[in-house]
């Protein structure tokens, strides 16, 4: 069958990102895009209305985080929380591309969590769940907690810290390297990598800020304090 221009663009982006996704996964990503478009007005999911923009700004942008995430988790099974997931970005994309992860998308807006539940059922994505709650109320433990267009780094780690496993990692999707936010991090979190991303067809700067819990304060002698 002939590929639609949209599928051709998605496949080119996937190749550019160095991802290896089966035809079935590509079909699910396209079906997910269709669902957002179909239900956007009802659920008020995103301000981006144009289908082409949605593909670039939402789908390919979220897909750019999949390779780095996989390198971090090494393809091992685990639990991932997407905070302030909205239409499911990047949570739904991660659930489709990483079936080894159990993905929960939390949002304070009931309609958005309901959309994720609907997407999980229509895409037959059994590793995906929509949660209607504030992230502050979740206990976890999650191995990875991610967010995109959510809050400052300080608020992100403070509000979700109780839900992150001791050895877990935070993955914050950001535009330009957020130096002000990095300087304002609370003592309980430390950055271990700021990873530049390049999103196919998008000129704007993108990065992932990787963080983990700072488990104990070190004294000047190098011994754990207290
Ligand atoms: C700007 S949207 C980003 C949506 C999506 N991540 C994206 O990249 O398109 C931020 C979302 O965070 C949700 N939100 C705000 N505070 C929250 C909290 N404390 N816990 C969970 N979700 C929250 C909002 O309802 C909103 O849907």
Strand order of the largest sheet: 3-2-1-4-5-7-6
Q: Count all strands and give the number.
A: 7
Biggest sheet details: 7 strands, mixed
Separate helix tally? 8
Mind telling me the C-alpha Rg? 18 Å
Small molecules held by this entry: S-adenosylmethionine
Overall helicity = 25-40%
CATH architecture assignment name: 3-Layer(aba) Sandwich
Q: Name the CATH superfamily assignment.
A: Vaccinia Virus protein VP39
Count of the domains: 1
Tell me the series of helices and strands, N- to C-terminal. Answer: HHHHEHEHEEHEHEE
What amount of the residues lies in strands?
Answer: 15-25%
What does this molecule look like?
This protein has 226 residues and is of the alpha/beta class. It has a single domain, classed as Rossmann fold (3-Layer(aba) Sandwich). The chain contains eight helices and seven strands. Strands 3-2-1-4-5-7-6 form a seven-stranded mixed β-sheet, with helices on both faces. α2 packs antiparallel against α5 and α2 runs antiparallel to α6. The chain starts with a helix and ends in a 13-residue tail after the last strand. Bound molecules: S-adenosylmethionine. The site of S-adenosylmethionine has 19 residues, from β2. Keywords: Cytoplasm, Methyltransferase, rRNA processing, S-adenosyl-L-methionine, Transferase. It catalyses: guanosine(527) in 16S rRNA + S-adenosyl-L-methionine = N(7)-methylguanosine(527) in 16S rRNA + S-adenosyl-L-homocysteine. It is found in: Cytoplasm. Its EC number is 2.1.1.170.
Label this structure with key terms:
single chain, 226 residues, alpha/beta, Rossmann fold, seven-stranded mixed sheet, 8 helices, 7 strands, globular, binds S-adenosylmethionine
């Amino acid at each position: 069958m002939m590929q639609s221009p949209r599928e051709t663009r998605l496949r080119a982006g996937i190749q550019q990102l160095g991802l290896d996704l089966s035809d079935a996964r590509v079909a699910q990503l396209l079906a997910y895009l269709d669902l957002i478009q179909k239900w956007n007005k009802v659920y008020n999911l995103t301000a981006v209305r144009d289908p082409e923009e949605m593909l670039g700004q939402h789908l390919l942008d979220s897909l750019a985080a999949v390779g780095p995430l996989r390198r971090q988790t090494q393809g091992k099974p685990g639990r991932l929380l997407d905070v302030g997931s909205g239409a499911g970005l990047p949570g739904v994309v991660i659930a489709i591309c990483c079936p080894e992860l159990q993905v929960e998308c939390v949002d304070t807006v009931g309609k958005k969590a309901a959309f994720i539940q609907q997407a999980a059922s229509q895409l037959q994505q059994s590793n995906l769940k929509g949660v209607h709650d504030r992230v502050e109320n979740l206990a976890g433990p999650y191995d990875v907690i991610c967010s995109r267009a959510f809050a400052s780094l300080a608020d992100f780690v403070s509000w979700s810290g109780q839900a992150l496993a001791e050895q877990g990692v935070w993955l914050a999707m950001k535009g330009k390297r957020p130096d002000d936010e990095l300087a304002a991090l609370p003592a309980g979190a430390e950055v271990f990598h700021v990873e530049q991303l390049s999103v196919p067809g998008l000129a704007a700067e993108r990065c992932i800020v990787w963080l983990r819990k700072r488990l104990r304060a070190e004294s000047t002698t190098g011994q754990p304090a207290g």
